[in-house]
Design goal:
Elements (H helix, E strand, L loop, with lengths): L2 E7 L13 E2 L2 E2 H10 L6 E6 L2 H9 L4 E3 L7 H10 L7 E4 L9 H8 L8 E7 L3 H4 L6 E4 L5 E5 L20 E10 H7 L6 H6 L3 H6 L4 E5 L10 H10 L1
């Protein structure tokens, strides 16, 4: 399979403007993501997708590939599709790598790529939830799978609900948190960017529910590796401390 990795990176984040250019150990977040993604042998090419000239020029300055996109995109998925259409080559799959995951492991990208066989429409990763506070945190998206390792649903609430239980639910049922990295078959990516916002998506503010609601299948693999996303300046402080 011929796979391209695309890293959406917008400047105007509500909680953290200019986030992709924030420094972690003297290296920008977007450069760290780019360098980590470039280590994944499954990716034929890695490109940053941005709507900001500062980010565009910065990626050029460290030798990265970058594509300029419209400012009107409402999601990284839409930004990925525009950059895909800018390529001179054709690709079977696109992997959307979050621009705020500076410590993304190449092994996670390889794991996701292992699901891509030409039949897989969409794919993503999950990790088991071991701590109750994560289960009840609405910022930690939970995933429910069927026996074929396909996504049934995603929610900000703990699902399934354990009726009649007052103890730690994580000791009684396997819960998964969603790792927000996606793979799209190229033709499916085009289709999902043309779908209107769905009722479930609007309710949970999760774009992947639009795909499920329209009948697309999302294949899922389980990773054992933890991630550290940067959503706020406080997260950046923690990342620098960890680094």
């Amino acid at each position: 399979m011929k796979i391209i990795g695309i890293i959406p990176a917008r400047f105007a984040s509500t909680r953290f403007p200019g986030k992709p250019l924030a420094l972690i150990g003297r290296v920008s977040m977007i450069q760290r993501v780019y360098e980590q993604a470039s280590k994944a042998s499954a990716l034929r090419k890695v490109v940053v997708a941005t709507d900001n000239t500062k980010i565009f020029e910065h990626v050029k300055s460290f030798g990265g590939e970058v594509g300029m996109t419209a400012e009107t995109h409402v999601s990284g998925t839409d930004r990925c599709y525009e950059v895909l259409t800018q390529q001179n080559e054709t690709y079977d799959y696109v992997v959307n790598i979050q621009g705020d995951e500076p410590f993304i492991a190449p092994e996670q990208i390889e794991l996701l790529a292992s699901l891509l066989n030409g039949e897989t429409e969409l794919a993503t990763l999950v990790k088991k939830i071991a701590e109750s506070h994560q289960l009840h945190n609405p910022n930690v998206v939970k995933a429910v799978l069927n026996k074929y390792n396909e996504a049934l649903y995603f929610s900000r609430s703990p699902v399934p609900f354990l009726r009649g239980s007052s103890t730690d639910w994580t000791t009684q049922h396997i819960y998964y948190k969603h790792i927000g990295m996606y793979a799209y078959r190229a033709d499916v990516l085009k289709q999902i960017t043309q779908l209107p916002v769905s009722r479930l998506e609007k309710a949970e503010s999760l774009e992947q529910l639009r795909w499920l609601e329209n009948g697309f299948k999302i294949k899922v693999a389980e990773t054992q590796l933890e991630t550290m996303g940067i959503d706020t300046p406080e997260d950046l402080e923690r990342a620098n401390a960890a680094f």
